[in-house]
Amino acid sequence: DTGVSQDPRHKITKRGQNVTFRCDPISEHNRLYWYRQTLGQGPEFLTYFQNEAQLEKSRLLSDRFSAERPKGSFSTLEIQRTEQGDSAMYLCASSPPSGWGDEQYFGPGTRLTVT
Amino acid sequence: QKEVEQDPGPLSVPEGAIVSLNCTYSNSAFQYFMWYRQYSRKGPELLMYTYSSGNKEDGRFTAQVDKSSKYISLFIRDSQPSDSATYLCAMSAENAGNNRKLIWGLGTSLAVNP
Hints:
The structure holds 2 protein chains of 2 kinds. By secondary structure, chain A is an all-beta fold. Chain A has strands at residues 5-7, 10-13, 19-24, 31-37, 44-50, 53-57, 65-68, 75-79, 88-95, 105-106, 110-114. Chain A contains no helices and 11 strands. In chain A, the strands form 2 sheets. In chain A, strands 2, 4, 5, 6, 9, 10 and 11 form a 7-stranded mixed β-sheet that branches. Helices cover 0% and strands 53% of the residues of chain B. Chain B has no helices and 11 strands. In chain B, the strands form 2 sheets. In chain B, strands 2, 4, 5, 9, 10 and 11 form a 6-stranded mixed β-sheet that branches. In chain B, strands 1-3-8-7-6 form a 5-stranded antiparallel β-sheet, with no helix packed on it. Chain A binds chain B through residues 4, 6, 31, 33, 35, 40-45, 48, 50, 53, 55-56, 89, 91, 93, 95, 98, 101-109, 111, and chain B through 4, 6, 8, 32, 34, 36, 41-46, 49, 51, 88, 90, 92, 95-107.
């Protein structure tokens, strides 16, 4: 399977705990996006990487959220001191280099439940 | 006013019907337009991608963009029960660093009844 993969698919955690999610993009896709989606809503942009550089971060993202993409391959999204309001589906998408196409391909998502 | 407006439905049609799904937007800088299908508790699946104005056809799906009216449409011909899902429109502008962050509609829930 050469699509975008995310791990874990589901995460249940207690309020105050830290969680980390991983995204493996389609190979050769140098652009990577994180979005968050709650029930009945469209996804909301969180952050964007081009290769290893984090070029944009949404103002929605508090200081408890951090994302990395070392070596420009997989990416991780960490949430510290989780709150119940963080419960959502976290989606990762990748896109080929500019000039090859701008379509974004999504992974299956990580569903986070904070109790 | 949200940047992208989409009627959440639900929309219920009989099998074989032609389905029309629509979005309007306010940001004239949007140039890239996409339609995604999302099944319950799954990630969005790209259906159609259009740059600027015009029509694009792929099998039973046709996407239309009217930039003068800031209006996009997705038509599904010969709808099937397997088309039952939420359909989301998404669009983006050219931003710094080739960031094409997507701005999304709420999604329209479609049910195709056998």
